[in-house]
Write a structure and sequence with these properties.
Layout (H helix, E strand, L loop, with lengths): L3 E4 L2 E4 L3 H13 L4 E6 L1 H9 L1 H8 L3 E4 L2 H9 L10 H15 L2 E6 L2 H14 L4 E6 L8 H10 L3 E5 L4 H9 L7 E4 L3 H6 L7 H5 L3 H8 L4 H4 L1 H25 L1
Parallel strand pairs: 3-4, 3-8, 5-6, 5-7, 7-8
Antiparallel strand pairs: 1-2
């Protein structure tokens, strides 16, 4: 088991991307159902305000740091994480594994036209992937027909791209129905794989400013970005609180 790093009450698995991929490959072979959350500061802050959502996150088998903000927060807390594991990178690496091993994959989420484009691209780039099924993310609540569709597919990998908190809640509510499968919430990754949204160039990612590239290309994201300074303030408040507690202990 990997060591856990607590960031504002959310315990992240301290693993590299390679370690995560190796672990997932093992669990696929063992047919172990696995719920994986790819969490960024927005998700952590949502959990601060919503106990039900926090409980959903804490029910996951693994929570991985998808965001430079999480890496920064862990470092500020003096509990550094080994590596950022971006949801999109994890998805494409697993698609490569699925292509190599002819695994069955189900895709759930995004708009209908986007998922159609994405499926075409997956078939071209990963021709050996067995597509167990796919469905857009615009359905009412916890539609049992969607659950039945995923269950019948009996896929090895299930990528859910409905945005937080909906994707995590859908997985948590349904995972016990399935016999096997690695279930991962991947946010807007289908848009990138479909070619609708461009990912930041490598140099932006190497400078750890992919978030800025996204903001420049999608100005409407600014409202979501407001949680980042609040996240940092929460981290600072947490470190100050820890220091205060240590000081009190020394005085005593």
């Amino acid at each position: 088991m990997s060591k856990k790093v607590d960031v504002l009450g959310i315990e992240f698995d301290n693993m590299t991307q390679k370690q995560m991929i190796d672990m997932i490959k093992t669990r696929i072979k063992q047919k172990k159902k696995t719920f994986i959350v790819t969490a960024n500061p927005e998700i952590v802050m949502k959990a601060q305000r919503d106990q039900d959502y926090k409980d959903t996150l804490q029910s996951a088998d693994f929570i991985i740091p998808d965001g430079v903000g999480i890496m920064l927060g862990a470092k500020m807390l003096k509990r550094p994480l080994l590596e950022r594991v971006a949801g999109f990178d994890l998805m494409t690496e697993l698609l490569a594994v699925a292509n190599q091993d002819c695994l069955n994959v189900f895709f759930l989420g995004s708009k209908d036209n986007v998922i159609q484009m994405m499926i075409r691209n997956v078939k071209q780039e990963y021709p050996n992937v067995q597509i167990g099924g796919y469905h857009h993310g615009y359905f009412e609540g916890n539609d049992p027909r969607i659950t039945d569709m995923v269950k019948k597919a009996n896929s090895d990998l299930v990528f859910v791209a409905m945005g937080f908190p909906r994707q995590e809640r859908w997985i948590q509510k349904n995972v016990n129905v399935f016999e096997k499968g690695i279930f991962i919430g991947v946010g807007g990754s289908f848009d990138v794989l479909a070619g609708v949204v461009k990912r930041a160039p490598t140099i932006w990612r190497s400078w750890k400013i992919e978030w800025l590239y996204r903001l420049c290309n999608q100005p409407s994201r600014w409202k979501r970005m407001t949680c980042l300074p609040l996240f940092v303030l929460k981290i600072l408040g947490s470190t100050a609180s820890d220091t205060f507690k240590k000081t009190i202990k020394l005085i005593r």
